[in-house]
Amino acid sequence: MDRRTKNAVVTLAVGLALNILLGTTKLVVGILSESTSVSSDALNNLSDAAVSVVTIIAAALAARAADHDHPLGHGRYEYIATFVLGAVIVAVGAEVLIGGIKRIIVPADVEFGIMLWVALGASVAVKSFMAAFYFVRGKRTGSETVKAAAVDSVSDVAVTSAVLVCAVTEKFTGAHIDGYASVAVAVVIIVFALRILKRTVSRLLGERPEPELEKRVLDIITSAPEVLSVHDLIINDYGAANKTGEADAVFPAEMSFVDVHAACDRLEREVAHCAGVRLCIHADPLITDDARLVDIRERVDGVLEAYGATAHDLSIEDCEKCVELHVKLPSDKLPRAEIVAQAEAEVRAVVPSYSVKILVDYI
Questions:
Q1: Is the pTM above the cut of 0.85?
Q2: Beta strands at 243-252 and 229-237: parallel, antiparallel or unpaired
Q3: How does DSSP assign 208-227, residue by residue?
């Protein structure tokens, strides 16, 4: 287990201990005072403790080194465990929701004692400390899991504060809003769990890399003077510390194979060192002495620039009298048919007797 993983595990272990202590205390107080909102908030804390347990186990498993059967490591253990955990939290939220609805239908007086006020006040104080603790440690370790725990703690502070307001309101007005507070807490739990599930499924399916990481990789590749452009960048996420990818870098066609290979090797090492991505660069030759290709590129680029789109992999097959072109769209909300039609018209203006094949992608 590397130092980064150890620091993240220690941080989550501290959070686990505090959540168990806080959740158990509030559950006892909620039962004794017959407050469903306090009991619901306690279950929220205990579900956070369950999150910490699963995350700690997943972090330990994800840190295992690559082996023969898993050459890309075990980093996705964390995502699988998080998905299972999200489903469990949805079930907890549903249970809290049912309890709150029952209390709305059949209201009951809440016993206000010193224990209730101490539990709620302590909860706000402890969760505020945990939010700050997670934030500082998450920034120091670079762990996205710890950063997410900080956001969760902030939401817990908001939820418990709402419960505290509910208790004060009921004490001084006699209004039975305890059940409504439970429903509100349940909604927060369920929404949070659904966000976990959505995010995890997206990662397992394979999503576009974070803009900052994508920009960092592209900047490194395009900083090489011999690279004319880059396209088709793909980054695969096999865990926070294990990302692989591939990209097409365009080189002048007149460069020697040896020089292109050396440039690709150098850039791959630099990307691995500076961006943490094990990248494979595919070299595309760009012919610069064919006037037709130059003219088509300039015309098509002029059209696509207005949409923020780009073109690549332009080729002319004289034997088959065909022109092939790839167009990258930055968003699926752009008028795809209109863009393709305009690009095709510009190609036909240069080679009117050739057929045109335009492939659209979002990579």
A1: no
A2: antiparallel
A3: PPPHHHHHHHHHHHHTSTT-
